[in-house]
Design brief:
The relative contact order is 0.18. This protein has a six-stranded parallel beta sheet with strand order 4-3-2-1-5-6, sandwiched between helices. It is an alpha/beta fold. Helix 3 links the parallel strand 3 and strand 4. It has a single domain, classed as Rossmann fold. The chain starts with a strand and ends in a 7-residue tail after the last helix. It is built from six helices and six strands, in the order βαβαβαβαβαβα. It holds the Pfam family YpsA.
């Protein structure tokens, strides 16, 4: 896969209510771990719509990886000013991503007009990628389900790998970080 989409839950769906919640570091590190293996297999582009939560964190993870890997970030929000009603910290993160992304273009060159824009965004992202990475738990329904339906539609006509970040992946990252902390065993 040369191009993938990354998506997942919004922060509230994961019980994250503060922009600087420490759980976010574990999520970003897990995303980076998954991306490194894909980069070593030839990944070149990561596409996001830069929604609050997993997509913003994925964009930030890609920017961190750009220091060591030749990977490009494409930000394709469903419409202009997607972030205008967001809390300030999220607005700043969104604006930073859109400024430093290798490619930025809203799917609709207008403001919010209706839910159809989100569906069109999912169709566009799936059509312009060879697979996706989704932070999702089968037992916790939420916003990623809409994207996954579109990915499943794509799989009816051509190969479209759907890779997951699961709660187990997140737990493994937490444990790896704990084990690498020299103070962990001295407690």
């Amino acid at each position: 896969m040369k191009t993938i989409v990354i998506t997942g839950y919004k922060p509230m769906e994961m019980g994250i209510f503060k922009y600087d919640d420490p759980k976010i570091d574990f999520i970003k590190k897990t995303i980076m771990k998954k991306l490194v293996s894909l980069l070593e297999e030839g990944l070149e582009w990561v596409l996001i719509s830069a929604q609050m939560g997993v997509e913003i964190w994925a964009g930030q993870a890609v920017l961190d990886l750009q220091k060591d890997y030749d990977v490009h970030l494409g930000v394709l929000p469903p419409f202009e000013n997607q972030h205008e009603r967001w809390p300030e910290a999220w607005k700043e993160a969104y604006e930073e991503l859109t400024m430093v992304a290798d490619f930025y273009q809203p799917i609709y060159n207008s403001g919010y007009e209706g839910p159809f824009q989100f569906k069109a965004k999912d169709k566009f992202l799936v059509a312009h990628s060879q697979g996706c990475l989704v932070l999702f738990d089968e037992e916790t329904k939420g916003s990623p389900e809409y994207f996954l339906k579109e990915a499943e539609n794509q799989r009816q006509t051509k190969e479209y790998p759907v890779l997951y970040i699961t709660p187990l992946d997140l737990e493994e990252t937490v444990e790896e970080i704990r084990m690498s902390d020299s103070d962990y065993f001295n407690q």
